[in-house]
Design goal:
mainly alpha
Protein backbone atom coordinates (compact mmCIF):
# COMPACT_ATOMS: atom_id res chain seq x y z
CA UNK A 1 0.00 0.00 0.00
CA UNK A 2 1.65 3.15 -1.13
CA UNK A 3 -1.16 5.58 -1.84
CA UNK A 4 -3.83 7.10 0.33
CA UNK A 5 -6.56 5.53 -1.78
CA UNK A 6 -5.10 2.04 -1.25
CA UNK A 7 -4.86 2.63 2.49
CA UNK A 8 -8.40 4.00 2.61
CA UNK A 9 -9.82 1.02 0.74
CA UNK A 10 -7.94 -1.38 3.05
CA UNK A 11 -9.25 0.42 6.15
CA UNK A 12 -12.82 0.23 4.82
CA UNK A 13 -12.49 -3.56 4.64
CA UNK A 14 -11.52 -3.85 8.33
CA UNK A 15 -14.03 -4.61 11.10
CA UNK A 16 -15.14 -1.55 13.08
CA UNK A 17 -13.25 -2.48 16.28
CA UNK A 18 -9.97 -2.71 14.34
CA UNK A 19 -10.68 0.64 12.69
CA UNK A 20 -11.22 2.13 16.16
CA UNK A 21 -7.91 0.65 17.36
CA UNK A 22 -6.18 2.09 14.32
CA UNK A 23 -7.73 5.50 14.94
CA UNK A 24 -6.62 5.42 18.58
CA UNK A 25 -3.10 4.42 17.59
CA UNK A 26 -2.99 7.23 15.02
CA UNK A 27 -4.14 9.82 17.57
CA UNK A 28 -1.48 8.67 20.04
CA UNK A 29 1.17 8.72 17.33
CA UNK A 30 0.28 12.28 16.29
CA UNK A 31 0.27 13.42 19.91
CA UNK A 32 3.72 11.89 20.53
CA UNK A 33 5.12 13.45 17.37
CA UNK A 34 3.78 16.91 18.20
CA UNK A 35 5.16 16.61 21.75
CA UNK A 36 8.55 15.56 20.37
CA UNK A 37 8.55 18.52 17.98
CA UNK A 38 7.93 20.90 20.89
CA UNK A 39 10.77 19.48 22.97
CA UNK A 40 13.36 19.62 20.20
CA UNK A 41 15.20 22.94 20.11
CA UNK A 42 14.57 25.07 17.08
CA UNK A 43 17.49 25.17 14.67
CA UNK A 44 19.82 28.11 15.15
CA UNK A 45 20.04 30.72 12.49
CA UNK A 46 22.88 30.16 10.11
CA UNK A 47 25.71 32.61 10.61
CA UNK A 48 27.34 33.71 7.41
CA UNK A 49 31.12 33.86 7.42
CA UNK A 50 32.78 37.24 7.73
CA UNK A 51 34.27 37.60 4.28
CA UNK A 52 35.99 40.87 5.15
CA UNK A 53 37.62 39.31 8.23
CA UNK A 54 38.71 36.29 6.20
CA UNK A 55 40.18 38.50 3.49
CA UNK A 56 42.10 40.52 6.11
CA UNK A 57 43.38 37.31 7.71
CA UNK A 58 44.63 36.01 4.35
CA UNK A 59 45.87 39.19 2.66
CA UNK A 60 46.48 41.49 5.61
CA UNK A 61 45.80 45.16 4.97
CA UNK A 62 46.72 44.84 1.30
CA UNK A 63 44.03 46.21 -1.02
CA UNK A 64 43.05 43.64 -3.63
CA UNK A 65 41.89 44.76 -7.08
CA UNK A 66 38.34 44.06 -8.16
CA UNK A 67 38.92 41.59 -10.98
CA UNK A 68 35.35 41.88 -12.27
CA UNK A 69 35.68 45.62 -12.78
CA UNK A 70 39.07 45.21 -14.44
CA UNK A 71 37.67 42.55 -16.76
CA UNK A 72 34.74 44.74 -17.74
CA UNK A 73 37.05 47.63 -18.53
CA UNK A 74 38.96 45.42 -20.96
CA UNK A 75 35.85 44.10 -22.75
CA UNK A 76 34.66 45.80 -25.89
CA UNK A 77 31.08 47.03 -25.77
Amino acid sequence: MSTVLEIESAVKKLPIHEVQELAQWLQNYVARQSAADKTQPSPEKCRLPGYAARRRRIAGEKVLPNMVTLGREQDRW
